[in-house]
Write a structure and sequence with these properties.
The complex is a heterodimer of chains A (228) and B (236). Chain A is mainly α and 228 residues long. Chain A has 9 helices and no strands. The chains are: A mainly alpha (228), B mainly alpha (236).
């Protein structure tokens, strides 16, 4: 089965990327530390009034995860470029989307872990009260993280191989992520105060639609991006 | 990569000078027409005159970005370099009209709302759209290899265009208390006439601008192809 072979290739790439991360650890630890630092800076900008902090918690946590995540996306290709490994990766048999999905899953795990750390620290620092509807909140986190990682992995494939990659990735990525951020922040905010206005559902639908549209679009377009 | 003898046909631009003169003259004429014919608005007074540049600029901006989408798709499909250059030219002109829309909106907003900027849904979406295409142009500036630049910017252009309705929707949900475009429906006929005439004239200006940017890019690429051919020693 050709498809099963592709899945094995995906798994191999995920494993390779995660093994590289695990062996160095420095990358993950410093990105997580950066996420926490950004949270503290948000605290300085907004605090020390507890109610203000609580109101802004959802936004601060999502933005901290975003800024930390951007570093992860470029790193994911940077390690390939340093030793010319990308050229070899492209020589292996199998379709191009396999490389994209492999990177995507590895990045999702990486960013997911960062998000967990940032959220735990954020809950403590911003004195967030955990609502009874926390399962929906986890759904929002997953959908938001997927949106972040899909476009992040896709745009990093270009930005990391251009001049001025540090500027180019956020410049391309952040405006594209506006719907994800608005939806994720608004839905989290609504759920944190008990969703009185019943608006979280609409935002979650928007997030799901966004994820689906861009997953399909990037799977299609990746071939044109990685081959040149 | 294309072969060394591949050239882009650089079209003669003689007619286009006349076309440009006509379109600028048309824009001046339609502006004068609508200034003379339209009475001051009941609520906004003479302020309504900005309608004749602001709204057509916004429409032209959308047309430009539709051109980017179509020619980016066509470039990925057929691989013709001309399509890439045309998409880039349309993106540049679109960004200009996008900036114009924003600035004109702010000039209108200051007397109407009392502030230069409000987090209104349309204003915010237009700004996000502007940033998406600034990213597109930055990407083109940072990548030298033409094939890579073409494919990458086509992908960015297509995803950017795909994002326009989603940004639009999400921002208006986020900011539901905005000025509805309903003032359009209640508009007197004479305002409509002025607006459409100006739109037509601005469309001509857009075509002229895109054409000129495309010509410049095509000449540049032809020169690069020639230099490459000489460097390869094939063109004696």
């Amino acid at each position: 089965m050709a498809f099963r072979d592709d899945l094995r290739r995906v798994r191999a790439i995920v494993w390779k990327d995660l093994a590289t991360e695990r062996r160095s650890k420095a990358g993950f630890n410093s990105v997580a530390a950066l996420g926490i630092t950004i949270l503290i800076l948000f605290g300085f900008a907004l605090g020390p009034d507890v109610q203000t902090l609580r109101d802004a918690a959802a936004g601060a946590i999502w933005l901290s995860a975003l800024f930390a995540g951007v570093l992860a996306f470029n790193r994911s290709y940077q390690v390939e470029l340093e030793s010319g490994a990308l050229d070899q990766l492209l020589q292996y048999p199998g379709p191009r989307w396999v490389i994209y999905v492999g990177k995507l899953v590895a990045n999702a795990i990486f960013v997911g872990l960062i998000l967990v750390i940032v959220i735990v620290v954020g809950i403590v620092l911003f004195q967030v009260r955990i609502p009874s509807a926390w399962p929906s909140l986890i759904g929002v986190l997953v959908l938001g993280a997927v949106g972040l990682v899909v476009l992040g992995t896709f745009y990093a494939a270009m930005a990391s191989r251009s001049r001025a990659r540090e500027v180019l990735l956020p410049l391309l990525l952040f405006p594209m992520l506006v719907p994800v951020l608005l939806a994720a922040i608004s839905a989290s905010k609504a759920l944190l105060v008990g969703d009185i206005m019943q608006e979280a559902g609409a935002w979650i639908k928007l997030l799901a639609a966004y994820d689906l549209i861009f997953l399909v679009a990037t799977l299609w377009a990746f071939e044109y991006v990685i081959d040149v | 990569m294309s072969s060394a003898e591949y050239t882009i046909e650089v079209p003669r631009s003689g007619h286009w000078v006349a076309f440009g003169a006509v379109s600028i003259a048309a824009l001046a004429a339609t502006q004068i027409f609508s200034f003379l014919t339209s009475p001051p608005d009941m609520n906004m007074g003479q302020l309504e005159k900005i309608l004749y540049v602001h709204v057509p600029a916004a429409w032209v901006m959308f047309i430009c970005f539709a051109i980017v989408l179509v020619y980016s798709l066509r470039f990925l499909w057929k691989g013709r370099e001309e399509d890439d250059l045309l998409a880039a030219a349309a993106a540049e002109v679109g960004a200009i009209f996008n900036g114009l829309t924003l600035v004109l909106g702010m000039i209108w907003g200051k007397p109407a709302w009392g502030v230069w900027w409000v987090w209104d849904a349309r204003l915010t979406s237009t700004l996000v759209l502007f940033l998406v295409f600034v990213g597109y142009l930055a990407l083109r500036a940072f990548v030298e290899d033409p094939q890579r630049r073409g494919q990458w910017s086509a992908a960015v252009g297509i995803l950017g265009a795909l994002n326009v309705p989603i940004v639009w929707e999400s921002v208006s949900w986020w900011r539901t208390l905005h000025q509805m475009p309903s003032s359009m429906q209640s508009m007197a006929k004479i305002y409509w006439v002025g607006m459409f005439l100006n739109f037509g004239a601005m469309l001509l200006v857009m075509v002229y601008f895109i054409r000129r940017r495309y010509e410049a890019a095509a000449i540049l690429r032809t020169a690069e192809h020639a230099a490459q051919a000489v460097a390869l020693g094939g063109n004696e």
